[in-house]
Amino acid sequence: MASTGTTGANVLLDSVMRWARLAPDAPAFSAASCQDATYAQLWGQACVIARGLDAHLAGRGPVLVLGRKTATTVASFLACLMSGHAYVPVDVSLPARRVHDIAGQIEGAACLAACELPEELAPMILEPGYLDARQLLVDAEERGLKAAPLPRERWVSGEETQYIIFTSGTTGRPKGIEVTAANVARFSEWLREFPQVREGGRVFLDQAHYSFDLSEFELVGALVTGGCLHAVDEGECSDFCALFDDLSRSGVQVWVSTPSFADLCLVDKSFDQRLLPNLRLFLFCGETLHHTTAAKLRERFPQAVVANTYGPTESTVAVTYCQIGEKELADPTPLPVGRPRRGTELRIVNHQTGEPVPAGQTGEIVIVGDTVARGYWQDPQKTQAAFFESQMGDGTPARAYRTGDLGRIDEDGLLRCEGRLDSLVKLNGFRIELGEVEGALEALPQVQQAVVVPATKDGRVRSLCAFVVLAAGGEKGEKPGVPGEKPGSPRDALALSRELKAELARSLPAYMVPRQVRVLERMPLNANGKADRRSLAASVSR
Ligand code: AMP
Prior knowledge:
By secondary structure, this protein is of the alpha/beta class. Strand 20 (about 395-410) and strand 21 form a beta hairpin. Adenosine monophosphate binds next to strand 13, strand 20 and strand 21.
């Protein structure tokens, strides 16, 4: 198998090519809502699209892949890597403004559409670097062309960027995290050791958007081991009858999702081993796994292992693993997230000084190791603030990342997550910088000041709540006021809240739009004269 530093070696490409030769008819991708693909078909599509990229694009810059859960989207990722480009996965369900914002951050980026574009994104077709993956496939078929792979020297490899995933950013714009081919190769080595995964050829649930790094868990896990991605799209996830019907025929053996998605499924009594008789492993990441979720899953899926993992996009999906069994469930403290993978060391440090805290105490989690990403796309300042060069315990040089997560290592050597140092929250597994939502609100002409807080119940974030102070007379600076509003007139709070939410939804993904928007005459302040976030959060939490 590919070594991590060799020129022309890319673990994903090497694996898919190998499986396409060894087991051409083995399923690589299946879904209820679009076409399935075998390994031979997936590799064939990747080669055709790569040749198209090669013919149209100069250089080795990143390519935006506009897609959704389809085999052609996966083939487009492979095609980018084969033709020497990092891929930037962008789900077409994101608001057009956000897609443009991401595209705008990658100057001159080519755009590869892997599915039909929604109307708001259609103008992108006219842009110079636009390519339609489906059209390339149709053209090749019409001409009876069977494309050969591009030479390996062209492939993305080693320390080159494999993908850039854009997550919520503090400054009101999404920020891109650059993960290298070597990072992914090392991550894949670890994944191959997981129970079930190690046997190979497993069917993986493929549920998270490809814009989120959680999806790399199944993408890498399935494709490097000759397994199959079973994709469920957003439409299916909002119709549980359709979802469960599809799952019952899916043969899924490895379940990858946030705990929140499993919680949603657990609401239905029929979500059990009879529905998914082959299921053997639940892999969770991205947010707190609660006792109730793990206990219910163990009860309803007696043949499956429930495993918790932890990690940020900045360190290639996940770096710790542990199985949740009777012993862990008997302990009422929050569940552990596990021990670090080989190649990763965890340090618990004092956030101010960076010095290690005494054993067992809580501090900031610093991840050191060979899956720590290159940094933030074209943002040396942010990269320098969070990433640094360090060394492993044995003196091997390694990159390190300050996570902003609080945690401690317990007496058994297991990491326990204990919250955040900043205002990043996880809502249903989605990563949200509250500052980005506040920035989007304050960019609206009606809003002078905004504070967004998580509304929690039983210790879980259930939604976001925004508190806003309106601009005097509905106007702010040079910006136009609210149409039809007289200065100082009483406003219908519900109508205003709806209006602000509708405006936010034009620039933010649905999961970032606060469920409630409350208007205040003035923002409450704390003793330091800052907006009193604590009292606002307490007022909406139970
Ligand atoms: P993302 O980059 O979207 O994967 O989000 C990374 C963040 O999610 C981490 O920095 C943590 O704050 C949180 N996170 C990830 N995994 C877990 C977990 N197992 N338990 C608690 N929080 C987690």
